[in-house]
Amino acid sequence: NKQVILRDYVKDSPKESDLVIVSNTVELKVKSGSSTILVKNLYLSCDPYMGILMREPNSSTMALLDAYVPGKPLVGVGVSKVIDSDDPAFAKGDYVSAVVDWEEYTTIKTPIISKIDVNINVPLSYYTGLLGMAGLTAYAGFFEICSPKKGETVFVSAASGAVGHLVGQFAKLMGCYVVGSAGSKQKVDLLVNKLGFDDAFNYKEEPDLDSALKRCFPKGIDIYFENVGGKMLDAVLLNMKKYGRISVCGMISQYHLETRDRVHNLPDIMFKRIRMQGFVCGDFQDRFPKFLEYVLPYIKEGKLNYVEDIVKGLDNGPAALVGLYHGKNFGKQVLEVARE
Ligand code: NDP
C-alpha cells in the first residue's frame, strides 16, 4: 500500500521534497463488527488548502481543518471503490466519494462518505471536482455569496482553475459580462476561446493590474470572485462599483508568504458599500442536491465545459499537488491512482 507522507511541517511554498512516498502492507479485509469499509482509491483531488494543512497549525489554519501530521499521509477528498464492507449501507463494488488518506487502500468509517450514483453517467473523476468540492464551491460562492443579477459585470481571478473556470461559466449562463485573469497566454486563450469568457488577461504580463481592470471594466465591477488575494485584491477594490459584492473563496497568493502583502485600498469597502464575505464550501453541504439539480442539465446539454488535468500514478502526487502553487494545472487537478 503506497502512501504519500508529509516529511515535516512546511515553512514556505510546499515543495515536492516535503512529501515522501512510502510503502507498507495492509490486509485487504475489514474486521467484522468494525462498521468500516475498505476502499481502493481511484482518484484523489489536489487542492490548494492542502498546502495550508502542511504548515504548523495556528489559530487561523485550525479554523479551516485539522493540520496534517508529519510522518503521516496527506488526507483529502477521493473517489474510491469499495473492496470490502462491514457496513450494510455499502456493498463491495460500490463507488464512493470520501475523505481518504493519500494512499492506495484506505479503511474508513462511514459518516464522511457518500455513495456515487452511477446512473448519473459521468466520469468518476468528476466527483473530485465538478460534482464535488470545486463545483459546490463555485455554485455556492457565486450564487449565494454574490447574489448575481443578469447583466452584471463579474471578475474571476485564477479563472482557468478548478473553481474559477466553473464560476465564469455559471456567470455567463446567467447572462453576466465575465472577465477572468490567469497566469499564461494559453490559459487566457482557453478562457476566451473555449470557455466563453467575454475577456481575459494574463496577470503576469500586466505591468499595472489597475489599468488592466479599467481596460476590461470601463464602468467597474459588480462582482469579484476572489481566488488569489494580495495585489489583485488591491487593484480590484479600486475598480469595484458601488454596492459591489466580493466572494472570498481563496487567497492562494498569500498562503505561503512569510510576510503577507499589504492591501491598501480597504477603505473602498466602506466608500462603495461593498459586501465582502469569506466562506468555505463545507458550510453549504446541504445545498448539494440543489446544486446537482442546477448543474446536471447543463452537463447533459453540453452547455458546460469541464476541464480536468489528470496526472497518473501516486508517485506523481507530490508534483501534481505542488504544481498548483506554480500554475501548472489547467482546470481541475486530479491524481489518478488507479482506473478501477
Ligand atoms: P486552481 O485549480 O485554481 O489552482 C490554483 C491556481 O492558482 C493555479 O493554477 C494558478 O493559476 C493560481 N495561482 C497559484 N499561485 C498563485 C499566485 N501566487 N498568484 C496568483 N495566482 C496563483 O485551484 P482551485 O480552483 O481548487 O482553488 C482556487 C482558489 O479557491 C484557491 O484560493 C483555493 O484555496 C480556493 N478554494 C476555496 C474553497 C472554499 O471552500 N472556500 C474550496 C476550493 C478552493 P495561474 O496560472 O492563473 O496563476
UniProtKB/TrEMBL annotation:
Cited InterPro entries: ADH-like_C, ADH_N_2, ER, GroES-like_sf, MDR_fam, NAD(P)-bd_dom_sf
Keyword Oxidoreductase on entry: yes
Gene3D superfamilies named among the record's database cross-references: Medium-chain alcohol dehydrogenases, catalytic domain (3.90.180.10), NAD(P)-binding Rossmann-like Domain (3.40.50.720)
Keyword DNA damage: no
SMART domains membership: PKS_ER
GO biological process: response to oxidative stress
GO molecular function: 2-alkenal reductase [NAD(P)H] activity
Domain Enoyl reductase (ER) positions: 58-335
Pfam families: ADH_N_2, ADH_zinc_N
PANTHER family on file: ALLYL ALCOHOL DEHYDROGENASE-LIKE PROTEIN (PTHR43205:SF36), PROSTAGLANDIN REDUCTASE (PTHR43205)
Protein name listed in UniProt: Enoyl reductase (ER) domain-containing protein
UniProt organism field: Eutrema salsugineum (Saltwater cress)
